[in-house]
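Why does residue order matter? Because the sequence determines the fold. Keep that principle in mind as you read this record.
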Amino acid sequence: MHQIRAAALLLALTAMTLRAAVPESSDLHGTARAGTHSAPNVVVWLDAPNAAPSATRRTVVLDQRNLDFWPKVLVVRVGTTVDFPNNDRVFHNVFSFRDGKIFDLGMYPVGALKHVTFDRAGLSRIFCNIHPGMAAYVMAVDSALFAVSDQSGAFTIAEVPLGAYQYHAWRAGAAQLAGRWSSTDAAPLTIAWP
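Structure:
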């Protein structure tokens, strides 16, 4: 009887060790290109509407400074509230009038803060009706697995659970792309517009 218990304990420890050795998720690295050039500000996301929300809750900000929005492109999960602080030296009136989330925050002064909850999937084009040169994009996606490419076109979607996914990629002025990606793929994901 003592040998059976020892064997069962050894088996349980071996199973736990094997489970610990096999990762349940990994980071998805990739690059975005348009023709022969790197493509910054590309939104990439994986279809994963049932993915658990991130354990860390972060504040999402679309800032206004130097008569511009920062960042120019933002991706959020549906249901996320975005802060719109006015850290500029003048009044602004932030709005989005078609597609995505429709809102108008009205005119507000330096140091003021407004909020918008992006409660449905889609692209929102963001403008200031006082300063026509100001423009930004907020893409709300029904997934917790997303990223925006940096200036070199590189992106990382952190902690992607093992499996196969449909991916989507969007950039301003181009058609949205889609394809398949699997965690068994050895190479990084390459998004490419002609």
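Residues 2-21 form the longest helix (20 residues).
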